[in-house]
Amino acid sequence: MARVPWVVGVSGASGTPYAAAVVRALLEAGEDVDLVVSRASRLTILDETGHPFRDAHAQDDLRRWLDRGADGSPDAFATDPARVRHWAPGDLAAGPSSGSYPVRGMLVVPASTACVAGVALGLSKDLLQRAASVTLKEHRPLVVAVRETPLNGQTLRHLVTLDEAGAVVLPASPAFYAGARHIQDLVDFVAGRVLDAAGVEHKLYRRWEGHLGSGTGGSDRDAGGTGPGGTGPMP
Ligand SMILES: Cc1cc2nc3c(=O)[nH]c(=O)nc-3n(C[C@H](O)[C@H](O)[C@H](O)COP(=O)(O)O)c2cc1C
């Protein structure tokens, strides 16, 4: 079978645990992933995990990042990143820079306001932005998980442009109705909504069932849940 991956673009907004949760869940769902980590996001990954992300050591650095829990525990997950293909952000000859390269769509997680602007304006200043523009022109699914607060009028206008172009604008905005008890639960909620928008099955969060208070019993993680993002109880 031909490999048809999801492109995951990680830009330099805060929220690198969201990206890790999305990649883990895609792999768990049996999907292939093409990963583009922007230059700026090397700083957020370093800041939020304490570890570098280097193109020359992408597989090792990726495994360490994917296995890290949102609370900082180094081995909260055991991820096999073999189905992740990494592309350097400056590689404008990479597969996802062309519409003829087969992909299912693209998830930008997290999306910086700079990235939002670049995609809205069609700047293609790097592979991440080019791949997002290609996704739009090919009318493939594009999910943009913007992370910034507050939002100025300029960014709001760019987000409207993306919405009108067919993207799903998905603020990285955790909810509390699913019984969140741990940082990972909040991260997984946002990651789960990203996968919902992409139409990929997952068990990252407990869905609303129409009953107030159903989330007060805690998350599935408390009950030893082992969804795609879970390894059972977290400390
Ligand atoms: C530690 C850190 C956190 C940042 N957090 C955000 C953020 O949450 N949202 C945002 O829009 N930009 C944030 N920035 C700024 C972006 O990294 C910056 O605008 C960069 O140019 C984005 O480039 P990129 O879109 O190519 O990744 C942050 C920068 C640093 C160093």
TrEMBL record:
<comment type="similarity">
    <text>Belongs to the UbiX/PAD1 family.</text>
</comment>
<dbReference type="Pfam" id="PF02441">
    <property type="entry name" value="Flavoprotein"/>
</dbReference>
<feature type="compositionally biased region" description="Gly residues">
    <location>
        <begin position="212"/>
        <end position="235"/>
    </location>
</feature>
<keyword id="KW-0637">Prenyltransferase</keyword>
<keyword id="KW-0285">Flavoprotein</keyword>
<feature type="domain" description="Flavoprotein">
    <location>
        <begin position="6"/>
        <end position="197"/>
    </location>
</feature>
<dbReference type="InterPro" id="IPR004507">
    <property type="entry name" value="UbiX-like"/>
</dbReference>
<dbReference type="GO" id="GO:0106141">
    <property type="term" value="F:flavin prenyltransferase activity"/>
</dbReference>
<protein>
    <recommendedName>
        <fullName>Flavin prenyltransferase UbiX</fullName>
        <ecNumber>2.5.1.129</ecNumber>
    </recommendedName>
</protein>
<comment type="function">
    <text>Flavin prenyltransferase that catalyzes the synthesis of the prenylated FMN cofactor (prenyl-FMN) for 4-hydroxy-3-polyprenylbenzoic acid decarboxylase UbiD. The prenyltransferase is metal-independent and links a dimethylallyl moiety from dimethylallyl monophosphate (DMAP) to the flavin N5 and C6 atoms of FMN.</text>
</comment>
<feature type="region of interest" description="Disordered">
    <location>
        <begin position="211"/>
        <end position="235"/>
    </location>
</feature>
<dbReference type="InterPro" id="IPR003382">
    <property type="entry name" value="Flavoprotein"/>
</dbReference>
<dbReference type="InterPro" id="IPR036551">
    <property type="entry name" value="Flavin_trans-like"/>
</dbReference>
<feature type="binding site">
    <location>
        <position position="193"/>
    </location>
    <ligand>
        <name>dimethylallyl phosphate</name>
    </ligand>
</feature>
<keyword id="KW-0288">FMN</keyword>
<feature type="binding site">
    <location>
        <position position="38"/>
    </location>
    <ligand>
        <name>FMN</name>
    </ligand>
</feature>
<feature type="binding site">
    <location>
        <position position="147"/>
    </location>
    <ligand>
        <name>FMN</name>
    </ligand>
</feature>
<keyword id="KW-0808">Transferase</keyword>
<feature type="binding site">
    <location>
        <position position="177"/>
    </location>
    <ligand>
        <name>dimethylallyl phosphate</name>
    </ligand>
</feature>
<feature type="binding site">
    <location>
        <begin position="12"/>
        <end position="14"/>
    </location>
    <ligand>
        <name>FMN</name>
    </ligand>
</feature>
